[in-house]
Amino acid sequence: MLAAARALGATVLTHTPVLGFAIQDAKVMGVETATGIIEADVIVLAAGTGTAALAAQMGASLPIHASPAIFMRYKAPLGLVRGIISSHAMEVRQNADGTLLAAEDYVDEAPENQPAAMAQRTASAIRNEVEGAEAIVPELACIGLRPMPFDGVPVIGYLPQVAGVYVCAMHPGVVLAAIVGQLASEEIVDGQPASALEACRPARFLA
Known about the structure:
By secondary structure, the chain is of the alpha+beta class. The chain has helices spanning about 1-5, 50-55, 115-130, 175-190, 205, and strands at about 20-25, 25-35, 35-40, 45, 65-75, 85, 90-95, 100-105, 135-150, 155-160, 165-170.
């Protein structure tokens, strides 16, 4: 996605923490970073579990909490999984380079529920359920934090407190990215509100 953005003329800045926002007359003017202010007519807060803290700098209290999950990566033969498998036994998909990606709910801090142990159990489940998966090898297992709005509904739209601040926070972000990206860009660029997003507005928390 970053490569595609660059190809379309976007500038991508990595390792550039947001320190604050430049606001004038209740309208955002830019983003403050260690290297200076990046001027902007509109900013999008799409920082996962960090979204609430950024919104709080502008006086908006968004109830988005961090929900832990265990993410796993396996070396696997190409073409093992086409699409997404979501069943009682596992949740997996496969990258174009063959990397198999899986996720499990975080249970607790018990040794048998730590990432490495979960990766082994999930590998066994994949081998039992997927033909040709005997040779998969665990490569990475870690705990990730997912942004979970308090009511379970995505938070998408402009903040009422400061003009020009658009929020995108949801779980699952990857699954919804394509349609939300399309609808949000149409709202921001064309100024046309999307009726499909009406239930997602940040204002529901800020009344």
